[in-house]
Design brief:
single chain; 157 residues; 8 strands; alpha/beta
């Protein structure tokens, strides 16, 4: 779903001005430990399955909903691996809408499904080895994607 009624209503009030958006993203690996990324229609850069948290929705529920809408995968969030925000996570959409995300990133396990676009927003889904990730839309730190990291603390800025 491109934009919920809640965010559409806010946009009707503030226009294209900056909105602070609580959001979630998932690091999802396949059996070869490759990371699932997606590329949305009209965009060159790749991103994690992600989206906004809606009013009354828990972050883990928002993550499961967003991942399913974008990838048709049912996942279980296993742990929080990062929390990011600030100017580096500001983004202006092609239509001019400005946002700044406060993103909680979860490590997820696939429960069932095969990756495919359900919502029409996603043009391409692909698993990448962690050492061959393309340039991402948001500047997550590279260590967020490392399976070999012995330091399992939550990353944040």
């Amino acid at each position: 779903m491109p934009m919920s009624e809640y965010y559409r209503s806010l946009r009707g009030k503030v226009g294209q001005e900056l909105l602070m958006v609580p959001s979630v993203a998932g690091v999802i690996r396949n059996e070869n430990h490759e990371i699932l990324l997606l590329r949305k229609s009209g965009e060159e850069r790749w991103g994690l399955p992600a989206g906004a948290v809606e009013p009354g929705e828990t972050p883990s529920r928002a993550l499961r909903r967003e991942v399913f809408e974008e990838t048709a995968l049912m996942v279980t969030p296993e742990r929080v691996i990062g929390v990011f925000g600030g100017p580096k996570y500001a983004f202006r959409y092609p239509n001019g809408d400005a946002v700044e995300y406060a993103v909680t990133v979860f490590e997820c396990r696939i429960v069932k499904g095969m990756p495919r676009s359900l919502d029409g927003e996603v043009e391409e889904l692909r698993f990448f080895p962690e050492d061959e990730l393309p340039q991402l839309t948001l500047p997550y730190p590279p260590e967020l994607f490392s399976r070999e990291s012995t330091d399992r603390r939550v990353l944040f800025e």
